[in-house]
Amino acid sequence: MSEWLIDNVRVLQPGHGLLGDRLRVRDGTIVEAGGGPATEPAAPVTRFDGGGRLLTPGLIDLHAHAIERYAYEASPDALIAATAKLARYGTTCVLPTLYNVLTPETLDRLAALGTALESVSDVAVPGFHLEGPFLALAGAVAETREVDLGLLDELLAAAGRVAAMSLSPEKPGVLAVIERLRDRDVVPFITHTAAGVAETQAAIDAGARHATHFYDVFPAPPVTEPGVRPAGAVEAILADPRCTVDVIADGVHVDPAAIRMAVAAKGPRGVALITDASVGAGLPPGRYSLPGGSAIRVAFGDAARIAEPDSPNFGVLAGSSLTMDRGVANLLRWLDLPIEQVWAMGTATPAGVLGRGGKGTIRPGADADLVLWDEADGRLRAVRTWVGGRCVYQR
Q1: Tens digit of pLDDT for each residue in 297-327?
Q2: If you average pLDDT over residues 369-385, what whole number do you get?
Q3: For the CA atoms of the chain, what is the radius of gyration?
Q4: Domain residue ranges of the chain, discontinuous segments joined by +
Q5: How many CA atoms lie within 13 A of 306 on its CB side?
Q6: What's the pLDDT score for residue 197?
Q7: Which is deepest, 155, 161, 274, 314, by most CB within 10 Å?
Q8: Is pLDDT above 90 for 67?
Q9: pLDDT of residue 38 exceeding 60
């Protein structure tokens, strides 16, 4: 039996507030959290002094393509190397997001990535997020194909473990895809869409009730009659209480005012933080290579952009350079909310999207995925990160 206790901390339960000043973990599970009379362990345990720092659940990223120099889909070795980097940014759970291996010709590469998930140990991976291929709008580089249920079955079988799949409501035949995903416990995400209200509502009714990188690649419908403001997928999603959304909080992809609008419509438990990170996330400004040999450029105050001058997409956004810790820090500045509500956007809300009640929370019986934070100088830095009660990062 493995047991440890940390005290002299500010234990934060997302969505609720501070619980107390200590927490105890046994065999990877929280057994005591907060204040009240302490229950002394039957045997001596390892004790940590938290130095008065903030202790939260680990951050959960529903949509990320890379970290530092490693893209998840570049190779099995890159996938394993990337997941080992996340704990330093406070991320304890991630959906590695794939977009370039979702074709009949790349099933072997997808299967190799699926096998590599078994070697990941420093972060929880409920499964892959497949961004496509049944998308209406390509964005920077995402694959688009007509709906093919046979290909869908091949993709799910090759990947082995899939937690979410992004699709567009206006694709002919997509409702059958949504129904099959729900039958297989894969969460359908809406994205890359110019769908109207009726098409979006049909997808929501079929079970697609989360929108990823919301507002981005969700173009507004054209004005067809002066004086009449058109409505489309964005309005249908914001108006439906069954739907949640996630946003890239880097200040480039989404204006803070638009994030505040989503929070006003959904509440903080209806809005999740993601990174949509590309290579270069967490690194200084510079030029970094993508899988396949192309490149992106990262600059201060900007996101990742295609850096090939000869490309028709030169200068186009290609994911972000955001990390989850920076995203939380941005939201704490931008939103006039209690801190426990902001922290829910990076923890409890994404856990709810995935249906993972044991993650994103601090309570007895929950997974001991935890981060101890340094908040000096208005920044957030992970001091210590645990996944399943095991320390996987210490600064």
Answers
A1: 888 777 788 887 877 778 787 789 999 999 9
A2: 94
A3: 21
A4: 3-56+362-394, 58-354
A5: 16
A6: 97
A7: 274
A8: yes
A9: no
CATH of domain 3-56+362-394: 2.30.40.10
Lookup: tokens for 13? 């339960």
Residue 219's nearest CA partner among 195, 239, 243, 198 is 195
| Mean pLDDT along residues 61-67 | 97
Note the pTM of the prediction, 2 decimals.
0.95
Q: Under CATH, to which class is 58-354 assigned?
A: alpha beta
